[in-house]
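>> received
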Amino acid sequence: ELTDKLTVEGGLRYDNERSSADVARSFTSPFFPPETFTESVNFEAFSPKIVLSYDINKEHFLYANMSRGFRPGGINQFVNNREQARFDPETTWNYELGIKSSFFDNRLKLNFTSFLINYSDQQIFTLLSGDSLASFGNDNIGESRIYGVEFDGRWIISKGLGINFNAGYLKTEVLEFETFDFTSGQFVDLSGRGLNLPLSPNFNGNINVNYIAPLNKKINLETTFDYVYQSDIFFDVTNDLLQESYGLLNGRFGITSKNLDVFVWAKNLTDENFFSYGGGISGFQAAAFGMPRTYGANLMVKF
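>> returned
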């Protein structure tokens, strides 16, 4: 049986307040060797944020900020010894510099942001030891780093026709990390090997085109297409499970009015094959396919 008392105040915070978390759990289980223990943890953190901004003129706005983020640690449920029970809090130092601009009487808006995030004890879900295949839980990466740039905007080309777009470059680095290797039965140090963080594509982007045309004074015709792209990603921190780059094309077409909206839509129009999730242990790998081409219709009645 598992008795669980969990109290969390705070979480990921970006202000000048102090946040804390208290977790207490007791463990007994018929599925593990006879062992019962009680573990409790307490975490506190100071999460400041500093923001600087400057209006260059009416069309351009410059800003910079620095903040410290905090995610409480806790106690893993599926473990059978005290050493694997606790995982530490995660903290970040975040730095951001950007500019927001508008042109042609606000018909074109462009935003550019650069950022750097330094992680300490980043939390990941992983195999904790080789004593049992059930020994899964949260563990901490010693140090990791994320940095990159983002660009997004909106362009109103003409009445009823607009384009939204964004693109980003992301670089992630695992600086310090030790994990259990199921094959060798030992912990191995993977620090400084150029590993990428899971689910972190180097390049990603999206473009959305929307067109609205009035058929009469009460009914509008609306069409939307969007294309989403991401480059290669890894599903695991050891970079063994790779999903290659892919793009998805989606669209919808319909009519709108004051009281009724009718749309037909389709997702993944080109029927791309891709995995939405993957995981594995010691050569055994499993993955879930992303949705194939799907289509349907929506009817909305407004009162």
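>> Confidence is low (pLDDT under 50) at residues 1-30.
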